[in-house]
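Appendix C reproduces, verbatim, an entry submitted by the partner laboratory led by Prof. M.T., so that reviewers can inspect both the input and the predicted structure.
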Amino acid sequence: MDKLDNQGIWRSLQEQFAERIGLVGEPHGLLTITTTKEHIIALLSFLKNDERLRFTYLTDITAVHYPRQEKPFAVVYHVHNLFQNVRVRIKVFIDGDQPTIPTATSVWEGANWMERETYDFFGIVFEGHPDLRRILNMDELDVFPMRREYPLEDPNRVDKKDFYFGR
C-alpha cells in the first residue's frame, strides 16, 4: 500500500466530494479542510471506511467561536490513520443564532462524549445525538462558558482587553 501524504489524501477527497470540500492549508503539515454541515457525515464516513485512507480513529471533536465572522462557530474534527500515522483536520463553519450540526455518533460511538463536551461549553447542538446533555458543567448553568460573548473579569487590565480575545 502506498504511503499516504497530504496531496494523495486531498486528491482522493476531491475525486469523491469535488466542490463540497475546501482546502484551508497544511499548518505544521496537518492537512486542514472545510466542508458544510450537510456533508460532514458523508466526509467522515468516507475518511473512516475508504480502504486506502483508513482514518479509523477519531481523535477529537471541539469548537471555536469567532464572534466577528459571518458564521461564528467552527466545529473541528481531528481524525487519525493509525496504520500510517497521518492526521487530518476538518472544519465546519456554522451559523451562530442556533448552532446545529449532525451527530458523528453514527460513524464513531466515541463521538458521544466529545459532542457532549462541545455542547456543554459552546452550545452547539448535535442533531440526532443519543444523549445530548451537559457533561462537565452544572445542569442548571444557563450559559456556554467558552463563547466569546462575555466580558472579561477585570476590564481595567491592559493585557485583558476584549479586543485581544476577538470580542
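The mean pLDDT is 92. Additional entries are available on request from the coordinating office.
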